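Quick entry between incubations.
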Amino acid sequence: MDKQELQTLTEKAKELRKLTLDAIGYLGVGHIGGSLSIIEALTLLYYRHMENIDPKNPDRKDRDQLVLSKGHAGPALYSTLADKGYFPKDWLHTLNQGGTRLPSHCDMVRTPGIDMTAGSLGQGLSTAIGKVLGHRLDGQQSKVYVIIGDGESNEGQVWEAAMCAGHFKLHEIIAFTDNNKMQIDGYTNDIMSIEDLTSKWLAFGWAVQRVDGHDIEALDRAILKAKAETCRPSMIVMDTIKGKGAAFAEGNLGNHNMVFDHATALETIKALG
Amino acid sequence: MSEFAKLDMRSVYTETLIELAKEDERIVIVEADLMKATGTVPFSQAFPDRAFNVGVAEANMAGVAAGLSSVGKIPFAATFTAFAGRKTYDQFFISGNYSYQNVKLVGTDPGVSAAFNGGTHMSFEDGGLMRNIPKLVVFEPSDNVSCRALVKQSAKYQGCTYMRLHRKGGQALYPENETFEFGKGKVLRDGTDVTLVATGFLMVPQALEAAKELEKSGISAAVIDMHTIKPIDRDLIVQYAKKTGAFVTCENHQVVNFLGSAVAEVLAEEHPALLRRIGIQDEFGEVATQEYLMERFGLTSPNIVKAAQEVVARKKGA
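Done. Structure below.
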């Protein structure tokens, strides 16, 4: 990645962070922490790595797909999709309002560009497996990206699916763990330890990398390496900060689903520059 | 009995899938280490690339099926009813139904047919769980002919379905060219005094047997094979409520939330009639032969006869 592209993606991530803060702040409550921790991953996927995606034809058959298994980070993905042109940006202010097409958790039926419904945690990786198995029958090489929460990794189904993707050697799957170290009731280390994530995923037959999830260059290198895998699914464990970029949220154990007003959001947006 | 009628119903299921798969390359199966039990091994031999066994992981099975559906495949996913209901419910609900996917979930060994697998594997509740899922079509074929027809219809239908499949043994209650439609019950026998509404491989024959016995005592009993529990055939129930004014439902399931409840709801809302529900009365399953368990839980024609006589007597007394 050259300096200019890094600069462009850094700016884009900042923009998406602002859109997400604005959307949740406008509503006054929402999953701000886990939305802001995956902004760099979404930026890299939608502005650099995902192929054959077309905002005018969201169901294009040969597209790469994203399953946002931690579906509560929907607002971050909605900002991304709106910015890409899947739907008008003014939809972002309808988040969670009656009749909206942008519900708190990702919904493929309601939102253009959402590739899989998620929200009941643990289910996304299984559906990604089904997508890849189906693609293979059609002779299609598309990648299916998956973002799993660290708290979500408490769910047994994640590990059923980990075993399955490893067994079927689904190298088309590139998954991320958003390892922001917090879950609803506290720190993951206190509620339910999930480490050592690297060893766990390795044991299930995956190629595993561990990077700073906010370091665009490092994350980009990890994705490139994962894309080159030919016989194993890839897990990229991203060390992230829950609420990244929002001073009022970072380090606040209550930032999973947080109340804050639009004025606070606008101040934070201003501070981001 | 024809050769077709002698087939185990699981063989009918699998042969129908193979027939469908030859015509439609979207048909795939997803299994959870029960292919030998569900009878789908011949499908995996005919279409090795289109049969996915995910091991003993039913939740993952349902999710994988939903993913396959999301890229245009038509997945049939099978396990025992006990696991189809209890172990895949959230995955089938959210990744499948709530996402408006096209997943065909199949539960085998309904109710007492789990027999020697015992109470842990005996599902008297799966149909009720499934009936609570919006838009889902829930059905239970009574014989090989309806099984073949309804599996074909399931494949053609755009949306999720749930089938309760009696896998061991076969029978033909219909001519081989009989046609079936989701949501349309079949009148197997007409009658004027009482209506026996039954579902499934075990209970429809018991209802037919009961009707014959009732005839001996001068009671004219209609028998309806209600193969689709959801959507229930409201028109047919109302028609027979007007005609007979008395009902007995017969199901290899708890009497709550499945056939008995569905019929009771229609009667209460549309045309009140006397009703007795033959089925499991708020009990867990247990281990024994199927025949023993049918007696144990009262899933027998003499029990249906008794219930029918009671409702007819009450109707006359009223």
